[in-house]
Request: fold
Amino acid sequence: MLGEVSAKFIKNGVNSGENFDVLLDNLLEAFDEVLFVTLNYDLFLEKAIETVANSVPGAREALGMGWYIQDPHWKLVKLHGSVDWVRAFTPPASILGDLPSDNVRGTALEVLDKLFIDEVDLGEIELVLKWDRWRNGAKFLYPAIAVPVDDARQSSICPREHEQAAEQFLTDCENYLFLGTRGKDNDLVQLLSKSGACRVVGIVAQGEEDCKETQSNLQEALDFSSGPQIYYSSGFTGFVRDGGLADFLEASHRTGLT
Reply:
């Protein structure tokens, strides 16, 4: 369902080639390499990358999970999974019973309801662009999505190769832009703890208090004292359209773009 909703929002123009495209276009033009880290499951960033970065049509389907970290100019790391990520598992024969081989999602959900699925039962994360079926022979496709229930508990479902690419990038990263996060997610904080020197920090939120809260929550992972801080309290759209993004890029230029 999340995948269908995300696809409909994009198709109906919620992303509309505007805010995400403008953001990515400016960042990719200004920096030699950009790491996008998201806790969201939707596909807005993927679609913007495909549009702005001139990704070869069909590249994501062809490259699978490697698509997210293969480009020298950008990387995309989704710590909590994605609506089009799955892991295959094979239910016990007693559960499969006499289900038809062309089973669709209705019966798949019935099977899921009957099972306790442990981590060891699941295969590697795969990219599935079309959720028209939840079954492939005896195997069912289980959504690769993490739903955090405790901020103090790690819940990352991201492939280790993706995390390693992010960690390597962060060791030399000096400019950070945070959009719509309170900085409470432990997976994000743990990843940022791998960071090197911090020169410019931009925080975008709905309100000044939210900006201050994000800074407070991230201070253990990042040193905010070594450079300018850009706070924009009018939300994402205002940041992109009303000068906040330009201010962040100007501050980054003054301190040296990396």
The beta strands are 34-38, 74-78, 81-89, 125-127, 135-136, 139-145, 175-179, 200-204, 229-232. The longest strand covers residues 81-89. The CA atoms of residues 21 and 48 lie 5 Å apart. The chain has a mean pLDDT of 81.
